[in-house]
Amino acid sequence: MLDMTSTATAAQAAAPVTDRRLTLISLVLALGVFTTLLDTTIVNIALDHLQGVFHASVARTQWVTTAYLLAFVSVIPVSGWLSERFGARNAWLFAMGAFLVGSALCGLADSLPQLIAFRAVQGIGGGMVMPITLTIVTRTAGPERIHKATAAVMLPGLLGPILGSVLGGAILESLSWHWLFLINVPVCVVALVLGRILLPSTAAQRGHRLDIRGLLLLTPGVVALAYGIGEISGKDGFAAVGAWLPLAIGAVLLAAFTVHSLRARRPALVDVRMFTRRSFGLGSAITFAGGFSTYALSFLLPLFYLQVRGETLLHTGLLLIPQGLGAMFYVVGVRDFAARIDSRFVIAAGAVLTMIGTVPFALADSHGGTAVLLAAQFAQGLGFAATTFPVMTLAFSNLSHDEAPRGSAAFSVVQRVGAPFGVAIVAVILQNLLDGATTAADRLSAFSETFWWIFGLSAIPLLLAFLVSPDKRTEPAEPTDPAR
């Protein structure tokens, strides 16, 4: 009787919801994505300020970011199991609650060790938000509406890092640094209240056991990779023991996990067989490659404005807004049209736009031409969105209801490892070029050459786009049911 009841509940949870309900669900999930990604950028911009506040070294202060990152990636592998074991809605509410508690504690911290410890608590919640969000979206929207749902959820995620620069600069100039974290509290409270009301309830699989062996292989492997990637951008790059040793350990552990996953009858964390599917595998590969282009640009542009152009933090944040506007324009004005075009061409066009948007920065001087640079950032944002949304639709369109939690965890691991890896490589390139820079002209030349590297690396997603299945995705007909 228990099995029959669970099956019936699961089937009910998997039933499609109306378009209006799907929109409300997407907006609630977007709040969680927005606040977790917003917080990352706000804190990155404030590291120099925090170093002065706590009279600490750069290495010690950097742990404010590192502790969050390591906690963030450590919980991604287990997020799929939590969704299945306790229900996706309950898992999402727990993740947002943990992020809320961590944010409040960070805002109340009065020493650097406290702040670092509380950032780890914050990272535990933040790391689970995205994969669980993707699980709920995939299950609720279904293949025919997933492109709409992911657009609604991911747009705030694209805007969060850009707005974070503006808010971070404004807070540091007018308020205490504590508000860098306390600003999350009201957003999290609203998300928790609305999530409790609007998110669909799903059945918990009480007999679903945690894959302990897989957890002991995958989680330390991902954490080791994340830590090693963070150390690549240091003075010695890959040659540093703190970089290559964690990377080697992480690679060995992930290889062992892959063997374990292939042998297991039903992997409870991440099923690596999903990567053999053309849609999921290519979607993951393009996402990983995006770390060398779109994510690297998000890292490099603020440094360009601060170090080459001499802009303030707040002015730099304002100058980055056109990138977010480009992404918004895709969702509002282009997405419906793009949904009717072969996804290969949409993804390829996004990569080309990113490349075009990189050229003016590679040719820029230390002053003037601001209008051209702002237009270039708009093209970058449009290209980023044109690549991101179709790729996510591609990756998740063929996942079944039961595969969604493990598929979301797998995709999130690729995203959270690929993005910082690409950024770290670009950071090494820039640092090597800056090492010999003694004048402003030398610094400008170093940034120019790095932008040309990004231009070339942006061709990787462009080439991968043409390996995508040529099947066209057509916009589904709008339902005629008046209840919708």
UniProtKB/TrEMBL annotation:
GO CC terms, sorted: plasma membrane
Keyword annotations from UniProtKB, A to Z: Antibiotic resistance, Cell membrane, Membrane, Transmembrane, Transmembrane helix, Transport
Pfam families with a match to the protein in the record: MFS_1
GO MF annotation: an example: transmembrane transporter activity
InterPro entries noted in UniProt: EmrB-like, MFS, MFS_dom, MFS_trans_sf
Membrane topology classification: Multi-pass membrane protein
The keyword Membrane is annotated on this UniProt entry: yes
One biological process term in Gene Ontology: response to antibiotic
Gene3D superfamilies per UniProt: MFS general substrate transporter like domains (1.20.1250.20), Multidrug resistance protein D (1.20.1720.10)
All copies of domain Major facilitator superfamily (MFS) profile, residue ranges: 25-473
This protein's name: Major facilitator superfamily (MFS) profile domain-containing protein
Organism: Embleya scabrispora
